[in-house]
Amino acid sequence: MTVKIGLIGAGGMGRAHVERIEQELAGARVVAVADLNLDGARAVAEPLGAKAYGSGAELIADPEVDAVIIATFGKVHAPDVIAAVQAGKYVLCEKPLATTIEDSIAILEAEQAAGRKLITVGFMRRFDQGYQEMRKALVSGDHGYATLVHCRHRNPSVPENYTTRNMIDDTAIHEIDVCRYLLGEEIVKVRIDTPRSTSHRFEHLADPLVLVARTESGVLIDDEVNVNIGFGYSIECELVMEQGTIRLGDQNKTVVRDGAGNRNAICGSHIDRFHDAFNQEFQQWIRAVERGEHTGSTAWDGYAATAVVEAALESLDNDGREVDVTLIEKPAFYN
Ligand SMILES: NC(=O)C1=CN([C@@H]2O[C@H](COP(=O)(O)OP(=O)(O)OC[C@H]3O[C@@H](n4cnc5c(N)ncnc54)[C@H](O)[C@@H]3O)[C@@H](O)[C@H]2O)C=CC1
Ligand SMILES: O=C1[C@@H](O)[C@H](O)[C@@H](O)[C@H](O)[C@H]1O
């Protein structure tokens, strides 16, 4: 079977996902593209011989579309996710699942009403080999349990319309999810520390900042979010265990050794750094859709991440005071 995919949102990520489906992955083709900017949808659809729509609703209603990818802005994800689920279609929604608790809960309710897990959230780091090996090493128990997680999320630069809030809801949300994935538990408290800002930033940004979180069992997570670091796209993670540490490996597999020393190249963007993870995420999703099964992170993961983001934003608005993360009771559906 070839899974017939509809893409909503023909921007940077949407186009990158079309390219991987058409050129690198097996088992699917893109049959429809929707964007509020209809010309943008046409530009992506026409070379594929796909249909173009001006809204997600039209695309979801197209009977030829088996499954939906949503790559629009986070704050407009919810209506399309809910419509796809109500139409009984699998949906892979880019992070964040939603930007408010209310929207996230409406999504959880719609999926439970549909009676089966149809939603995957685009937390692609769960498919990165390095993070997967870290999790395996942690779960083995060989080094005892984790006490601390040190994370660094460094981007070369950001555009002027990117805000300090985006450092949390757009950027740190990846560590929020991947720490939940690694540790297998919820984050219960969070605060935002704001050190001296870099001069290499737009004036309105508090860059860098540090998100400090605590999990149910007391593991302390610190995440340095530093979005004008200049030299490249650099993601680091270290689990401090009772007896040893487990560290995410270097991004590149080749080391150059010469008169200048030992070095490896630094990636330039998330597309580059997580190329293999994105491909794994989408290939496994396509195979799962074929089998009629769910894969990857669930709508609950999307909701829990949004709840931590909301508490972190409250901390940011309140001089960095620690804020409790309050979750609804987890429905048995998501166990
Ligand atoms: N997993 C990752 O590492 C990354 C994920 N993302 C996520 O991907 C999503 C898209 O981001 P980008 O592609 O960078 O944004 P973008 O701005 O390049 O593209 C968004 C597109 O969605 C369209 N759009 C907006 N609202 C719409 C609606 N209601 N219906 C139909 N089309 C609509 C816009 O016209 C635009 O073409 C976001 O959720 C973002 O957080 C973005 C970058 C990396
Ligand atoms: O999701 C992403 C972007 O939206 C975000 O703006 C970047 O900071 C992240 O590194 C990238 O993975």
Automatic annotation (TrEMBL):
Its EC number is 1.1.1.18. InterPro entries: Gfo/Idh/MocA-like_OxRdtase_C, Gfo/Idh/MocA-like_OxRdtase_N, MI/DCI_dehydrogenase, NAD(P)-bd_dom_sf. Gene3D superfamilies: Dihydrodipicolinate Reductase, domain 2, NAD(P)-binding Rossmann-like Domain. The gene is iolG. It catalyses: myo-inositol + NAD(+) = scyllo-inosose + NADH + H(+). Keywords: NAD, Oxidoreductase. The keyword Oxidoreductase applies. Involved in the oxidation of myo-inositol (MI) to 2-keto-myo-inositol (2KMI or 2-inosose). Belongs to the Gfo/Idh/MocA family. Residues 3-121 form the Gfo/Idh/MocA-like oxidoreductase N-terminal domain. GO terms for molecular function: inositol 2-dehydrogenase (NAD+) activity; nucleotide binding. Homotetramer. This is Inositol 2-dehydrogenase. It is an enzyme of class 1 (oxidoreductase). Residues 147-319 form the Gfo/Idh/MocA-like oxidoreductase C-terminal domain. GO terms for biological process: inositol catabolic process. It holds the Pfam family GFO_IDH_MocA_C.
